[in-house]
Amino acid sequence: MTDNLNGKGLALIPRAETKQSLKDFKSDQEVRWCPGCGDYAILAAVQSFLPELGLKRENIVFVSGIGCSSRFPYYLNTYGMHSIHGRAPAIATGLAASRPDLSVWVITGDGDALSIGGNHLIHALRRNVNLNILLFNNRIYGLTKGQYSPTSEIGKITKSTPMGSLDKPFNPVSLALGAEASFVARTIDSDRKHLQSVLRQAAEHRGASLVEIYQNCNIFNDGAFDTLKDPSTRDEITIRLEHGQPIVFGTGDNERAVRLSPTGGVEVVRRAEVADSEILVHDAHNPDPSVAFALSRLDEPAFEHVPIGVFRSVDRPSYDQLMNEQVQTATADKGPGDLAELLHGGDTWTIR
Amino acid sequence: MTKQVQQLDRVIIRFAGDSGDGMQLTGDRFTAETAQFGNDLSTLPNFPAEIRAPAGTLPGVSSFQLHFADHDILTPGDAPNVLVAMNPAALKANLADLPRGADIIANTDEFTKRNLAKVGYDANPLEDDSLKEWRLHAVPLTSLTVRALEGFDISKKDAERAKNMFALGLLSWLYNRPTEGTIKFLETKFARKPEIAKANIAAFQAGWNYGETTESFSVSYEVKPATLPPGTYRNISGNQALAYGLIAASVQAKLPLFLGSYPITPASDILHELSKHKRFGVRTFQAEDEIAGVGAALGAAFGGSLGVTTTSGPGIALKSETIGLAVATELPLIIVDVQRAGPSTGMPTKTEQTDLLIAMFGRNGESPVPVLAAATPSDCFTMAIEAARIALKYRTPVMLLSDGYLANGSEPWRIPEISELPDISVPFATEPNGDDGTTYLPFKRDPETLARPWAVPGTPGLEHRIGGIEKADGAGNISYDPDNHDRMVRLRQAKIDGIDVPDLTVDDPDGDARVLVLGWGSTYGPIAAAVRRARAAGHKVAQAHLRHLNPLPANTGEVLRSYDKVLLPEINLGQLAMLLRARYLVDVISYNRVRGLPFKAAELAAVIQDVIESD
Questions:
Q1: What DSSP element (H or E) covers B567?
Q2: Given 3.40.1280.10, 3.40.50.920, 3.10.450.60, 1.20.140.10, which CATH number is that of B506-613?
Q3: Nearest CB to B32: which of A330, A347, A351?
Q4: Rounded to a whole number, what is the distance in Å from the CA of A54 to chain B's nearest CA?
Q5: CA-wise closest residue to B300 among A281, A171, A187, A99
């Protein structure tokens, strides 16, 4: 059996000998996002949380695709590759599968990950490649200047959809759970504490971690997540998932709870109307992703309630571990490869 | 009864039958026996893309041609001396290639009314005299096999299935092949089904005995071993040689091999072969698509592996953008294109040389990539190492072209000593290279090779970012500066143009030929065989063959200009001809056929004669 490294997911990555600071992780490049972009907050959160992981900086790699968020690697003083549209999970798969000693991060957006790169994303998740995939979801195309994205709501009026978009959006968390990702979470750019807590758990998970980060594009889709940020509405719609805790949210008379529904999903009910024993206790470690999937559907329709936090975090051997195991097994069985022996294998004959 | 044994210097046999008849296996075994015997040989498998096309139909015919001789030969042969036809479809599909007087061994059991009707025979050709110009041996292969296996505890279907081994036994007797190898092979192949193993061996021996006793065959033939240069030999196909070459490159580069690949005909066997050799540290990754295959290979290269992707033409089309990224990031990467007939899906199991221009230019922007092409099946080994050498030394993606003919064809290969293989290892960057002694400049180039340093993640102090956006010369930071871009475009081109490539050598025994036949890739064998014929007919003709297509050998222009005429046969519509005309202003004479098959030596010999004799 594979020794599962979950929970000690950073065990194979060399530790830094001295304490690191935010400064160590800032590159000398000028950050070039639009003023007010949500990406700044995420960058700052990442730069300040990375030193806490205590990993050698040279063993951290950021790989991105194309889009506004994909400029991210340039601003971190780690190894990095700004690759091509949609392909970051594929490129990072080769890197992570061949280098178990690296902490590999994929920075992607809703267009990059879910349109052009949708195929690579689901396959990286099902294989459980040792990647931390940060999906910046602003529900719009930014770098191509404002077309609708695969997470835009139906009827979105944009430059390319003057009469409204026709496509039903993806829910990235549902998609990742459907692909049986071993770690799936959602957080918000403006909530640094929550963001960093989720990122830390993602980093420590060995295998593929998908973190959806709601990120505001103040130029082309400003205010997309305002109801989750505005103090007057925030607590009424945000469901903060915590492993082992009953799922309740809202305040005062409006306090609500989540319970299993008779139809096989979950439903939101008034807290006062249910017994404590009926309230669903969040189990992120449940091997069956069905309840986590049901929770991911609670934002339908139209962000009425939005769960954030870690939906799922389960143990499964990572792809690099399995790949290395085959190399080790083959080597243990017959010894390391001998080139001369290989070339002389099969039927040979000698001419003198 | 002692039968006469006649000496021959060479024989061409074609086994043909239904896709399910096991003709490729039969051909492979006959080839192995022939290699073991010490003949020189060359093979041409030819099979449909469909796994099991409808039984007994023309599209379902699968064939395997083998040419073997007591001297060195260059092609699988133009026209078979012997056709083994397992059914009417096999006869009909192959008869046109068979010269008058050749032997036909036909399985009479399959020449039923129904099977004849399937392929449009009104009458049975085995009975109506229509084959009187050939030497027909009508043999009830299926019923003889079933009868020979009566004592075995196997189903009738399994007994019938062994008819290919009966045919193999018969042919092995006819050409005095050694049989131990095949018996051992069958024992191993059916180790878990001993009764099937015994039955197949019995069928094989029954075929041999049938040849010895029947009056249908009055003569058997002997082709003496060939006198090849001293050494230890094995028979090898292009795909296997290429896979071994990649493993050898990994060993000689001291880097782990990472293959990212998506199954595609006719390249999949390289993936299959490499996946067997994990104890060399080989990691094979069957990706979700062609793009992910090359992406993962590039990601692994960034991490310090020898990154390889293998595919055929349609896959190259999909990989183009990532190859462009490898050009921009200047990382070593090997892209193997086992060419097949196009456009689009084309004819997946048929051969072509039609990807030269996509290999050269099939990317956006000024995106130069070195292009190599193997000349023979065993040359795939050498060229795989050469591709790795160039990729590592110059930090560049390299396109290595093979094709369906090389991939599946096989020939004897003198196994090289490990000491003969080049050391292609290159050092990773470990220290800052900036003038201040502390900064790392990922695009500061080696003044000789123009290669940039290769610093892999995990190296302290050399943290850097690379990507597809234009980079500032030296520092590698994003740059939109117009002059910088112009400089970087020229630097990338100059790096590729400056790759050390051996000079083109010309074979001209008399030294005063006025006509040069030039080729590239898998046409080497047919061209060389045609040149031999032309010389034997008294013509003076020179031959040269390109294995490096980008950059071309430095003396290429000089060689082309030193002949009155340059003939360039290609299995495309003149792709290399176009490049040579543009580059050297030499009006080469193109000869092009695009039939999904290799050239025939006789066909090219006639073309050479025409070119020599015309003004």
A1: strand B565-570
A2: 3.40.50.920
A3: A347
A4: 15
A5: A99
Task: Tell which CATH architecture fits domain B4-223.
Answer: 3-Layer(aba) Sandwich (3.40)
Percent of chain B with pLDDT over 70: 100
Render pLDDT for B9-44 as a digit per residue (tens, 0 to 9). Answer: 999 999 999 988 999 999 999 999 999 899 999 999
Residue B53 has pLDDT above 90, yes or no: no
Give the pLDDT confidence score for residue B20 in this predicted structure: 87
CATH of B234-420, one of 3.30.450.20, 3.40.50.1360, 3.40.50.970, 3.20.20.140: 3.40.50.970
Residues in chain A closer than 8 A to B279 (CB atoms): 327, 330-331, 333-337
pLDDT at position B615, please?
A: 72
User: Which alpha helices (DSSP H) does B335-481 contain, by range?
Assistant: 356-361, 379-394, 404-408
B532-558 confidence digits (pLDDT tens)? 999 999 999 999 999 999 999 999 999
Domain locations in chain B?
4-223, 234-420, 427-500, 506-613
Stated pTM of the model: 0.95
Over the stretch A68-127, which tens digit does the pLDDT of each residue have? Answer: 999 999 999 999 999 999 999 999 999 999 999 999 999 999 999 999 999 999 999 999
Distance from CA of A206 to the nearest CA of B (A): 19
- Residue among A29, A327, A339 whose CB faces B248 most closely: A339
* Cα of A4 to nearest chain B Cα, Å: 21
Q: Where are the beta strands (DSSP E) in chain A?
A: 60-64, 79-82, 103-109, 131-137, 183-188, 209-214, 238-241, 248-249, 256-260, 266-270, 306-313, 348-351
Q: Do domains B4-223 and B234-420 have the same CATH topology?
A: no
How far apart are the two ends of chain A, measured CA to CA in Å? Answer: 51
Query: How far is the C-alpha of A223 from the C-alpha of A203, rounded, in Å?
Result: 29
- Please state, rounded to an integer, the average pLDDT across all residues of chain B: 96
| The pair of three-digit structure tokens given for residue A252, joined into one six-digit string | 């005062």
